[in-house]
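Lab channel / #folding
Pinned by the channel admin:
"Please post every new chain as: sequence first, then the structure tokens as a reply. Keep commentary short and put observations after the output so the thread stays searchable."

First post following the new format, from NK:
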Amino acid sequence: MNIKARIEKIENTEYESFVILDESNIPSISSISLFNPEQKRISIGEHIDCPVRICFVRDVLSKELSSPQYLRQVKNTTEACGIVQSVDSDGDFICDIKGVGSIPVELEENIELSVGSAVSFKGELRAEI
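Reply from TO:
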């Protein structure tokens, strides 16, 4: 899944920028960690369209299939609840979130997950340009 938004504010570090977004295609997301390994120039007002994932996830909790699905930001953390679409050999998975789409999720530790199960978790929403 890609995030499409206009950059409103930028805070830079050596390899990463934390950007405040405007006009995002994901309504509940107003900021994102933007990984920029090639140090491409980005500027305020620029529109971005880049892949997004949730990383640094440690705790994954099982939920009822009827649980509400969401993707939201609480301070510097992204909280999500959705359905596991697929799991790779490293244990990372693709989570489908109703109204948002399918987002790759990278785990800190390998956790046993079942395709089709509902889960909730917290992590860092990150895009790469």
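NK: The chain has a mean pLDDT of 89.
TO: also worth noting, The longest strand covers residues 2-12.
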